[in-house]
Structure formats: C-alpha cells, structure tokens
C-alpha cells in the first residue's frame, strides 16, 4: 500500500507540472521522489507517509536530514535555487512540524511543509480547473514557510 501511495503522490506532482524523479523504496536512504520545477528554479523533496492513524515523526527526522543534504547538493548542480521538504500524508501534528523544521535549520532546505492528502488533491483539481492561470511559481510561494497545507 505504501508504494502505491508514493506513486500516486508522484503522479499528483506531475499533474501540477513538475518533472518528477521517483526514487522510492528499496533504493537506500533517499526520498520517495524529487519534484522539480526547472524553469522556476525550485524543487520539492517529497516523502509520502501512508498511516492509518495519522503520521508521527518518530525517528524520521535524521533520515529526512540525510535526504535534505544529499538531494539539495544534487539539485544545486542543476541550477535549482530553492528546495522545499514536504511530507504528504494525514493527521499531522504541530509538534512534529516544529521538531522537523528545527532539525532542518542546519540544511539548505528553504522550509518544511506537511501536506494533507486532501490538500494535495484540491491543489491538483484547482490546477486542472484553472489551467490557463495556474503557475508553478504559485506553488513556490505556497510552500514557503514551515506550515501545514490541510484539506
């Protein structure tokens, strides 16, 4: 189930217009995928978390910092100026956002966003409905600042 959820999250970001590089499970300590907006010069390091009772950070913080260090170096070589870290799932807690944002302070990550599944679905639907006015630059602005995007 978690692999399918990762694939669906990657597809959602493709629908938004990102170039998505799926890295995923079984590939060592890497994020699930990178969503790159090359023309806008930003990217999102994505990790999808399918949990029945909602997501709790636990010990993922260290792993996420490793993702941040590895992937921001790679992305910088491609001319990407801003990199965000996003966790897609449900049932997030403010305590976990604060903790992860604190851990990411020493990395090149611009900000951390916890994206509720419903919020991602709404964003994709809005991008389709308003295709003529939708811009990835708006997503750049939406992700700025440590926050939740909820349904």
Q: Which short descriptors sum up this protein?
A:
151 residues, alpha/beta, 6-stranded mixed beta sheet, 5 helices, 43% helix
Please give a structural write-up.
With 151 residues, this protein is of the alpha/beta class. The protein has a domain at 44-128. Helix content is 43%, strand content 22%. It has helices at 2-16, 60-77, 94-104, 117-129, 136-143, and strands spanning 19-22, 33-37, 42-48, 82-89, 111-116, 147-149. The protein has a six-stranded mixed β-sheet, sandwiched between helices. Helix 2 links the parallel strand 3 and strand 4 (82-89). Helix 2 (60-77) crosses helix 3. The longest helix has 18 residues, at 60-77. The chain is globular. The chain starts with a helix and ends with a strand. The model has no long low-confidence stretch (mean pLDDT 88).
Helices and strands, with pairings:
Elements (H helix, E strand, L loop, with lengths): L1 H15 L2 E4 L10 E5 L4 E7 L11 H18 L4 E8 L4 H11 L6 E6 H13 L6 H8 L3 E3 L2
Parallel strand pairs: 3-4, 4-5, 5-6
Antiparallel strand pairs: 1-2, 2-3
Helix pairs in contact: 1-4, 2-3
